[in-house]
Write a structure and sequence with these properties.
Distance between the termini: 92 Å
Oligomer: single chain
Number of strands: 0
Largest sheet: none
Helix content: over 70%
Strand content: under 5%
Order of helices and strands: H
Mean pLDDT: 90
Radius of gyration: 30 Å
Shape: rod-shaped
Structural class: mainly alpha
Length: about 70
């Protein structure tokens, strides 16, 4: 960025404006990360549920050999 040519007051206003923009962007990114983290947790829960279901299904589906003497 080149040197700022405005007055001290306009420099202060410019700094405040950029700080405001930065805060808004940080809040948006934080909200996006929170949403992504929530989605990831839900997907992992679903994966665990499916694995548990398939393990239970495979255990109950295996035939048991019965021998009669």
């Amino acid at each position: 960025m080149t040197g700022f040519r405005g007055s001290d007051e306009s420099l202060d206003r410019e700094i405040a404006a950029i700080e405001g923009i930065a805060r808004v962007r940080v809040r948006r990114v934080a909200a996006d990360l929170k949403d992504l983290d929530r989605d990831l947790r839900e997907l992992k829960r679903e994966r665990a549920r499916r694995r548990a279901s398939s393990m239970i299904a495979s255990e109950t589906a295996q035939p048991v050999e019965v021998r009669v003497h």
